[in-house]
Each structure stands twice: as structure tokens, then as C-alpha cells.
Amino acid sequence: MALTERGVKVDRDEVFLEYTKSICPVCKVVVDAEVNIRDNRVLLRKRCPEHGRFEALVFSDAELYMRQLRFNKPGTLPFELQTEVKAGCPLDCGICPEHKQHSCLGLIEVNTNCNLDCPICFADSGHQPDGYSLTREQVAFMLDTFVAAEGSPEVVQFSGGEPTIHPEIVDFVAMAQERGIARVMINTNGVRLAKDPRFVVELAALKPDIYLQFDGFETQTHLAIRGLDLRELKRRALEACAEAGLPVTLVAAVERGVNEHELGAIVRFGVAHPAVRAVAFQPVTHSGRHLEFDPLERLTNADVMRLICEQIPEWFVLDDSVPVPCCFPSCRSMSYMLVDGEGVIPFTRLLAVEDYLDYVANRIAPDPAVRGALEKMFSSSATPGAERALVACEACGIDLPDAIKEIDEHFFMLVVQDFQDAYTLNVRQLMKCCVAEITPDGRLIPFCAYNSVGYREQVRAQLSGVAVEPLVPNALPLQPLLQPTRYGSKTARHANGNGHSLPATNVGQRLER
Ligand code: SF4
Ligand code: SF4
Ligand code: SF4
Fold it and tell me: What is the pTM of this model?
């Protein structure tokens, strides 16, 4: 096969970075994939024998991506594994013996029902008659599974659906705390917090961290992402949390062309609000239900970080974001800010964090006590207050301003987290995932595998007894193939691809449902 005219050799227009595995976004069979750099963008490309070639943007600043790879901490083994290696990654979740990291954060989705029906919902939840709601026994078993695997788990997050409408959610928080789990979070839309003062009082007694959905201030943002103008409701929820002393992380789903211009305003609002201790930005996960998107123009962590710097240049430059080393470094970046009256000082201006968390170059022999404290701060399990690790570390020698006595009250955390979807899934990244969906059958499934590979559909069908169609991202190039599911997400018109099994590897296989 002739590629070019003889005598004229032509260079490829991209730098080949790695060979890996992914899945076909349509039929979910495992396929070979490669990662390339083109025009300073990192792209993942793959080909399904049945559905053709796919390419997606995974990081929009290749230079930054390469710099971030040094923040790659060797993984830690959990005490227990839950599955065996049979078909290979990502079909053996988990955690299977091939996985490279323990789980910093465990998620329990207590129900599929919700009091909203957002146009964007990776859990594909809403006012639905046919989902599931976990029992107390199931939650107890899941917590025990997590404790057995982790010893003393750092964080459990209750999610859904909408966890606050589960009648036993307060008991679930208490059950997690009784098992010695250090931080318990509730991932909520805030509707019940705004409307039910008695519920807020019950929570106040247990002091869970509130992970509050908060996408911006404009009506259009609310309508596009949540289908309703929830601004007044969010204000009331935050007021209730402030009064009850519940620490809040604002969590914004960021979609291109919708609310990317509101990031700076969200950070400013959070810094000024008495209840808010952190902001987490998540480029919209194109799993479950979401708006139509172009996989080559999707928002990535690099875009979000750049937008934050552009919108609050007096506070941030790009180097103030530190890749989180416990997971794959391009998954999540974090910053801490010291808030002193009107002034904000990014933590990276006080300490050369990079010198401690660069695990490749090891340019200096880092003080293990400082490195240990920083690993706690820059971790997927870090919740507001994680900076206490540093205060406890006497060796750090950071000259904190005298005015700062109550350190918890003055640190503010910023997180940027890009979850993978069926387009962007890369097993290299997945194998080091430290965020686990705990399932009632006792598995700890890495979060991005749960949302992309078919595990979510499998678990929902098992728990509800109702068949769930295999989901396909609502991507521009796939439009001719797609049809809606009854929950508003998309499935393929012919979703029963035959798998193209190849004998020697798991390429060509998919999850049995
Ligand atoms: S993602 Fe991890 S747990 Fe799942 S199959 Fe791959 S290595 Fe195993
Ligand atoms: S995104 Fe959250 S609030 Fe919206 S429908 Fe889904 S579970 Fe409910
Ligand atoms: S949940 Fe996804 S994005 Fe987060 S650490 Fe795991 S693989 Fe990375």
C-alpha cells in the first residue's frame, strides 16, 4: 500500500505518546487505543472493528500534561481485593489484583430517585418509578466492605440519585461515622437543605461535609444544566448550612458554551460565603444524561484551570494548581488559598510544593514529614480542613502570617476534576483510580469505569430488577446512531454489537451483563 509519492517522505502531524486500551463508545468492547499530541493537544484515538474510528480530546495543553506526569506517586495496596483477574482491564472491576492504587474515596449511591430531572446527570436519575433505594443492611455491608479493604477509610460520600430524599440518610451518615470513617460527605442538589429545617438540624448534630451542586449565577446556566432556575433555592440551602455550621464545597459542572465564563465569580462567591470552604469544578462528564457535545472540543482540566486564571488573575496563575499524585496526575488538580481578610495567597507561593511531589525527578531528597503532609492535602480524599496535616507537621517551617490562628477558617480549597467517559477512557489512567463506587455485591469499582464501561447499567438492573439499556455518549459524531432511553440518556439503535472476540487478549470483549 503506497502512502506517499516515492522519494518524498512526509512526517506525521502528531507525536505518538503511548499505546493503551480503551472501549468503543458505542458497543463498549475493549479496543486498542493510542494517545498522540497534535497542535499542543493530547488526543486519544481508537478503532472499533464494528463502529469505526473515534478520537477525543483528553487534555487541551500538552505541555502542561507532560509537566503533570511527574506528580505520580507510587500506589498503595489496599488490605483486601474483591475480584480476580479474568478478562483483563477494564472488565474485572474491582478492585482486582492489577489495580495500582487503593481507594482514597468511597462512593455509595443510596438511590436512583431524585427530586430534580436535570438535563445533565451522569447517574441518569430523576423522578423515575423503576429505580432502587438501598436498605440499611445493604449500606452496612457496603461500609463494612470498604472498611475491610481500607482499614481506616478517609472519606465516604453518599450520593444518588438525590441522597437527602432517602428516608434513612441521617442514619447512614451515623453508620459511617460509627465505623471510624474520618469524613462523611453528602453529595446533594440542596433542595431538601433549603426546604426542611428539621433535616438540617439533624445533620448539624453529625456535621457531615456538604458537597453542594452549584453551577453558576445566571438563569441560562441553571436552565441548561438543571432545567430549572434554582438560584433562590441554592441561596437558602447555603444560608441553612451556614447557620448549622455545616461545611460546604460548591460543586460546579462546567460545560462549554454554557457556564465557562462563571468560574471566577463562583470562586469569589465561595471565598466570601461563611459556609463555603471549597469549590470543585468538573468539566461535564459525558456519561449518563447530558447535552450533545463534540469530543474534540470538550472542556478539559487545562481549560478550566486557564479560565480560572483568566477570570481571577489577581489571585491565580497556572502554576498554583498542583496535580493530585495519588491518582493519575491528569485526573485532578488542586490549589489551596490562604484567605486573610480581603487578601488571598495561593499556598504554592509559600512552599515549593513541586519539589516534594515530583516523584520522577526527585531533584531534592524531600523531607518525608513534609511530603507526607502534602500528600494528605493534595489527595482525592482531601476535604476542607486537610491543610491541618501541614500544621501538624512541625518540620514544614512555613511562615504562616501571624494573623492566622484558626487555620481551618482561613484555608480555601479549589479542585478541578475531569472524569473520563466512554470516549476518553484510558486504562492507564483508570488502573490508578482512587475513587471507588462501592456496590451492594461487595465490589469497589473505579468511578470512571463504573460510568463508562457498563457497570452502572449492570448494577442498576441487578438492584432494580428492571432491564437498563446500554448507554452511549450523546456525541455529535454518533447522532445518526442514537435513540433516547426512557431516562433521557442515549442508547444505540443497534446496541447489541457482537463483540468480535479475539482469543489472546481482552481486546474485542465487553462486560457481560
Ligand atoms: S480498572 Fe482497576 S480494578 Fe478495574 S479491571 Fe482495571 S485494574 Fe482491575
Ligand atoms: S444531577 Fe443530581 S440533582 Fe440532577 S437529576 Fe441527577 S441526581 Fe438529581
Ligand atoms: S474517578 Fe476517574 S478521573 Fe477520578 S481518579 Fe478515578 S480515573 Fe481518574
Answer: 0.91
